[in-house]
Amino acid sequence: MKALLLIDIQNDFVPGGALAVAGGDEIIPLVNRLQEQFGLVVATQDWHPPGHLSFASSHPGHQVFDQVELYGLAQTLWPDHCVQGTEGAELHPALDQHRIEAIFRKGMAPEIDSYSGFFDNGHRKATGLADYLRGRGVTEVYLAGLAADYCVFFSAKDARGQGFTTYLIEDATRAISAEGFGRAKVELHQLGGHVIQSAELLQ
Ligand code: VGL
Ligand code: ZN
User: Fold this and answer.
1) What is the pLDDT of residues 8-65, one digit of tens each?
2) Site to substitute for ligand 1 among 68, 115, 118, 143, most atoms within 8 A of C-beta
3) Is 113 labeled as catalytic in the residue annotation?
4) Residues within 5 Å of ion ligand 2 by Cβ?
5) Looking at this predicted complex, what is its ipTM?
6) Which residue of 28, 31, 101, 106 has the fewest CB atoms within a 10 Å radius of its CB?
7) Which helix (H) or strand (E) segment is 35 a member of?
8) Can 106 be counted among the known catalytic residues?
9) Which of 80, 149, 151, 157 is an active site residue?
10) Is 185 part of the annotated catalytic residue set?
């Protein structure tokens, strides 16, 4: 059984949003077509409380994209984004939601970031996504969404770590940094993950 994971397709990650990924909105028509190929579609939603410690605004004297250490973990500081209950945190209105069976929220703990849909960045707490997928008989996970080099990549790595056959659908993602995504693809290959194009699923 294969599942499509739609990672953080939220208003704040598309142009005009607080943490816009260039071309982030361009993936949505493709993602909607891809959903038809899957018996199970699941989404994740970045869902931070106001004042989350991944926000540069929570660190006086620091700028957006600075690197700091947070309780022993390297942390990039982001603009305030995906604040619980705001429009920026909503799934994008063009995303077809009628086949999304579950939405896993992440990033609620104020002191730790959570790029992956499976675990926080310290692997301290699981979201329940892996157990949910196993409970549904899923063995193969396909990933699309935003951003390719952060939440999609970290979700793909954890999917591998949880023993799922893992496919990152490259043209159904957009990256914050092309260089960062290049490194991410190498690492994913080393972990036994696959990077594919949507055409391999749509023919
Ligand atoms: C993301 C940075 C911070 C993402 C979320 O969805 O890729 N990136 N929070
Ligand atoms: Zn975030």
Assistant:
1) 999 999 999 999 999 999 999 999 999 999 999 999 999 999 999 999 999 999 999 9
2) 115
3) no
4) 46, 107
5) 0.98
6) 101
7) helix 28-35
8) yes
9) 151
10) no
Indicate the helix (H) or strand (E) that contains 172: strand 165-174
- Site residues for ligand 1, CB cut-off 6 Å: 8, 13, 46, 78, 115, 146-147, 150-151
What is the distance in A from the centroid of ligand 2 to the CA of 48? Answer: 7
Joined tokens for residue 84: 């619980």
Ligand 1 atom closest to the CA of 7, numbered from 1: 6
CATH assignment of 2-53+81-202, given 3.40.50.980, 1.10.340.30, 3.40.50.1820, 3.40.50.850?
A: 3.40.50.850
Q: How far is CA 102 from each of CA 1, 40, 161, rounded to the nearest angstrom?
A: 16, 9, 21
Span 168-194, pLDDT tens digits:
999 999 999 999 999 999 999 999 999
* For the chain, domain boundaries: 2-53+81-202
CA dihedral 180, 2, 90, 80 (to 10 degrees): -30
Does this model's pTM top 0.90? yes
